[in-house]
Design goal:
The protein is mostly helical. It has seven helices and three strands. The two termini are 32 Å apart.
C-alpha cells in the first residue's frame, strides 16, 4: 500500500517530537568557542588547574547563552526546510518503510510504536539526513 507524502511528513515530525530531536542553530559552535577560550585563558594564567576551572566556567557561560536556542527538528522540517530537502527526506524514509503495510499516518504511527527497531531506523535516518544533507547539528 502506498503512503502519501503528507502522511510521511506527519510521521517524521511526530517521531522527531517523540524522540525530542532538536537542532542547534549556530549555538554549538559558539558554545565550544566560549568554553575553549575560557579554558585556554585560565590555563595560561593558572596552569594545569586553570584548564579545569576555565572549562567549567566557560561551559557554564556557554550553557547560559545557548539554552532555549535549540529548535525542534519537526519545526525545521515543516517551516524551514526547502521543498527539495523535504522530498529527499521523505524518499529516504519511504525506503525504510516500503515493506510496512499501512494505509495512513495514524496507522503507521501505531505500527512504529510497536516496532522499536523500525522507529529507531527512521529516527536515525532523520538525524543522518539533517546532519549530512543540511549540515545541521543535532541534539537530543
Amino acid at each position: 500500500m502506498v503512503i502519501r507524502y503528507n502522511d510521511i511528513v506527519h510521521v517524521i515530525t511526530t517521531l522527531a517530537d517523540e524522540e525530542k530531536i532538536t537542532v542547534a542553530v549556530k549555538e554549538t559552535l559558539k558554545g565550544s568557542l566560549i568554553a575553549g577560550g575560557a579554558c585556554a585563558v585560565c590555563g595560561l594564567v593558572l596552569g594545569p588547574v586553570g584548564f579545569a576551572i576555565g572549562g567549567a566556567v566557560g561551559g557554564g557561560i556557554a550553557y547560559c547563552l545557548a539554552k532555549d536556542k535549540f529548535k525542534p527538528l519537526s519545526h525545521i522540517i515543516l517551516h524551514e526546510m526547502s521543498a527539495e530537502h523535504q522530498r529527499q527526506l521523505v524518499d529516504s524514509v519511504k525506503n525504510i518503510v516500503s515493506e510496512v503495510d499501512a494505509a495512513d499516518a495514524v496507522e503507521m504511527l501505531a505500527l512504529l510504536s510497536g516496532n522499536m527497531l523500525l522507529k529507531a531506523k527512521i529516527a536515525e535516518e532523520m538525524t543522518r539526513f539533517a546532519a549530512h544533507q543540511m549540515n545541521l547539528q543535532i541534539g537530543q
